[in-house]
Specification:
By secondary structure, this protein is mainly beta. Helices cover 13% and strands 33% of the residues. The strands form two sheets. Strands 2, 3, 4, 5, 6, 7 and 8 form a seven-stranded mixed beta sheet that branches. It has a two-stranded antiparallel sheet with strand order 1-9. The radius of gyration is 28 Å and the shape is elongated. The termini are far apart. It binds zinc ion (ZN) (2 copies).
């Protein structure tokens, strides 16, 4: 069994829209840089029923700040959301603004015991995508609704009740009456 080459750790592409180069900060604690950019949304930015459509614009404002152990990234992201109401399935369009902050530690400073728990700089590059994805997913409602008090769908026919507040069907026969009429007509009770 041989490995001819050591596999590179998923190498970051410095030109990718969600990858930031921190070399300008020179690893000097205290130096900082502001970055604003609009990037196309990566795939699967959201949850199954609500999310940022892939390729749609995400506006990002960031501050990159060199600290002793690495680079602290603080930012906001704004994007449009598309999805559907969890109660009535009506399409939902909304906007989201999320804030995030994460310390990206210089590669050689990572304690091997913590390796899986910290975000690392790779060749002085920051990968914003996981950070953005976590912030967006956390900010989304578990069950998105078209309006806070969406009445959902009619259990009888599936009509969207918000479109037809007076919606109704002939009241089903009260089960107590059914029982009474069965008593009144004992001949038909058995068969
Ligand atoms: Zn709804
Ligand atoms: Zn109905």
């Amino acid at each position: 069994m041989s490995r001819t080459e050591s596999e590179p750790l998923s190498q970051l592409d410095p030109r990718a829209p969600l990858v930031l180069d921190t070399r300008e900060l020179g690893r000097r604690p205290g130096s900082q840089r502001e970055v604003s950019r609009t990037v196309p949304a990566p795939a699967d930015l959201g949850i199954e029923v609500l999310g940022v459509p892939e390729g749609s614009p995400v506006e990002i404002d960031l501050r990159l700040e060199a600290v002793m152990e690495g680079v602290l990234v603080t930012g906001t992201a704004r994007a449009g959301l598309e999805g559907e109401c969890a109660r009535c399935l009506e399409p939902i369009s909304d906007e989201i603004e999320v804030r995030f902050q994460e310390l990206f530690v210089y590669d050689q400073d990572v304690d091997p015991d913590e390796e899986l728990e910290v975000s690392k700089l790779q060749d002085d590059l920051v990968d914003l995508e996981p950070l953005l994805r976590d912030a967006v997913v956390l900010a989304l409602p578990f069950q998105p609704l078209c309006e806070d008090d969406c009445p959902g769908l009619c259990a009888e026919c599936g009509a969207r009740l918000a479109d037809d507040p007076d919606h109704g069907h002939d009241a089903p026969v009260d089960p107590r009456w059914t029982a009474l009429s069965a008593l009144a007509e004992p001949d038909q009770a058995e068969d």
